């Protein structure tokens, strides 16, 4: 038996103002998208903004449903829309923000497992990393340079 170390690198910014200008703009668009989320059940609103290599910015937010599992997270709403509209474009980066009307979300909120798996598919497809910035409503912003830092040892089509 031998043990291997799996490491992830995360950069932490004190707040949105510490981000590089383009990343801050992307996060501001994620915040605007978050405000339009449809989250009547969880009251937990999430916004995502994607920048594409063709210059487009795609936004999405969580869309809930009375049949709970039928709803979809913000990240997947946005990335599937991008995949549907611009199948040849590469996703450069994604900004994600979450806020709740029942608690103060002031820690970075990263994506759920299904969203990580979905983003991983696009990294694999485009053969280049996607930078991900994530935050709550206020406070620190975390950044990973690749989805691989959020989903080490993931499953992809190389196993099929
Ligand atoms: N949610 C997202 O939109 N993205 C995530 O990565 C985590 C969870 C949404 C799903 C649901 O509408 C609400 O947040 C509470 O789970």
From TrEMBL:
Cofactor(s), by name: Zn(2+)
UniProt-listed Pfam families: dCMP_cyt_deam_1
Catalytic activity: cytidine + H2O + H(+) = uridine + NH4(+); 2'-deoxycytidine + H2O + H(+) = 2'-deoxyuridine + NH4(+)
Leader sequence residues: none
Top-level taxon of origin: Bacteria
GO molecular function: cytidine deaminase activity
E.C. code: 3.5.4.5
Claim: Translocase is one of the keywords in the record: no
Role: This enzyme scavenges exogenous and endogenous cytidine and 2'-deoxycytidine for UMP synthesis.
PANTHER family membership: CYTIDINE DEAMINASE (PTHR11644:SF2)
UniProt family annotation: Belongs to the cytidine and deoxycytidylate deaminase family.
NCBIfam families hit by this protein: cyt_deam_tetra, PRK05578.1
Name of the protein: Cytidine deaminase
